[in-house]
Design brief:
The protein is α+β, with helices and mostly antiparallel strands. The protein contains eight helices and 14 strands. The strands form two sheets. Strands 1, 2, 3, 4, 5, 6, 7, 12 and 13 form a nine-stranded mixed β-sheet that branches. Strands 8-9-10-11-14 form a five-stranded antiparallel β-sheet. A hairpin with a 4-residue loop joins strand 2 and strand 3.
Length: about 325
Amino acid sequence: MSNHPVQPKLIIHGGAGSSLKGKGGAEAVRKSLYHIVETVYEQLLRGSSSKDAVILGCQLLEDDPRFNAGTGSVLQSDGQVRMSASLMDGASQRFSGVINVSRLKNPIYLAQFLQDSADRVLSDYGAAQLLRELNIPTHDPLTDLRLQEWIQERAGNFNKDMAGVIAEAELADSAGRGTIGVVALDQAGHVAAGTSTGGKGFERIGRVSDSAMPAGNYANAWAGISCTGIGEDIIDECLAARIVVRVTDGASLEDAFHRSFVESQQHQRDLGAIGVAQSGAIAWGKTSEILLAAYHNGESIGDTLELPEGMQTGSC
């Protein structure tokens, strides 16, 4: 690898789904995503590692109640918020995460701590114990909009498959696949990926999402991927790991995305993904109607909010 600094690259997502409820919704989401891209990319230019940049990006997305992760997470069928998150450092090829953790503001911080632990993935009870050991303040991530969403669905006996991807002032029908994710390439040429979610919403207690699995979040020296969409579909495709393996075996990031999404479409999956390669390529793909992603390619910021419906892949 060259001793000259690599041009950093960054892509983030705020979920995938079926509706942004008109132009106003798209512009509001774009504003939120662009602000986070600008903040995180500035840190990369200052020499931040890809892992630290991913942690910062995930924290900012978790703190934005518009997205289904951290504050603003959806409620499960019993009216409780349970969140999952994972972090993968491509330089060390090390994965860490938490599953169905409650009463905290930023699940990505627990995943960060577990990077250096002998036990790197914890479920609800173990994560709660770790919270106490680290003296992390408790936090209620529930918002009024998510509570009202749950109350409406409770009245209808939870007929929806999942909650809305975006918390809107008007709780109209918008089937969602809510997750947030960040993938970054730093000046040293290292890739990292992080993913966090509040889950599907209204799901059976104990259900585990893809966000704390290599199926939904994976990175090595060659590429990093964060997925969003219906978790079970992502798990069935093992999407993040599949794309990374293809890049590792010599495919371009663009080709790895295209092949993987053609297969996902053939299997009638509902999902999306973002990625960055060690080469500097940025790519995205979706089979869902929308993908809420924004990126910085080293020259400018762009997004995927207004891609045509149906399967799409792209790169820059």
